[in-house]
Amino acid sequence: MTLPNPLLLGLELSGTGAHPASWRRADSRAEDLFTAGYWLDALTAADTAGVDFAFLPDSFALQPEGAIGRLEAVGIAARAASATHRIGVIPQAPVTHTEPFHISKAVASLDFATYGRAGWEVTVSHGQSKLFGRKGEQDETSLWHEADEAIEVVTRLWDSWEDDAEIRDRATGRFIDRDRLHYIDFAGDNFSVKGPSITPRPPQGQPLVAVRAADPRSTRVAVHRADLIRISAADLTGAAHLRSELRSAAAAAGRDPNLVRVLVDIDVHVATTAERAASDVAQLEAWSPTQAPNALRHIGTARTLRELLAEVRRECAGDGVVLRPLALAAFTDHLPRLTPTLRDRLGLPRPANRYATTA
Fold this sequence. Notes:
single chain; alpha/beta; globular
């Protein structure tokens, strides 16, 4: 048995790479990390190669090691809007110290800028309360309860304008029909928001919401709220089991599980040969040793990675994958050889050449 739909291919663009020593590689372009060109090159390469969506990590905290410092993810995504044509852009936006009204407006604007290719990965923020001075530290339960309410507010605000609220009636001078704008009147434990939004309903209606199911609290929010659920698993069997559990939980929550996509994170490093890939990773580890991964990892070639992706689909381990390059610049060099052809996407075999001689 295989998945009924083509495998979705996502890419996480995390600085110079997921490995903390990736910036030390000669090809890392670490000197360009805080320029628009660096991010545009990565996103346009992924777009040209046919990657379905790119995740842009963000946080209020500095990285503990490696290339330290961040640009704001929604801003990066907006900068790439006019330079890309197909790829979905899904920035992280932490909710813990951010008003949902601001997130709603920013992601809706991104959806307009990309003509309907925006998403939002929901995250929470730990240990950063002193940067803001507005509230004390929260425990995990409180953080994800607040995130749940924030998603509710954001999605209500996206709906607070009806699709045809803009009437542009020159004769009467009415640009909008105010009867088609709605107060959301949300009152919860963390937010009290009357609405409506000041931004029209986005092109998608509701930009995609992504949540990483990393523990019971985030998993509960993901099951109830997310269109895209990111998971991590030690092997494909574990990923398939977790996907099945999440689909069942979504159904129990009253959702159609076929409208939820479960994406498996895979750390990757790809080179021209498996030996070269292993040598590259050994050098990264010599520079900055990391703990043995308890998640899927692929160190090899573009061909062997394609084989792994086919196995993910065959084993129903995920509706898609999110590839996390250990060294980003090195990985984007192999993207054109990694992404599937149109026949691959449709599940159709490559025809044999009718004139080729058979052995």
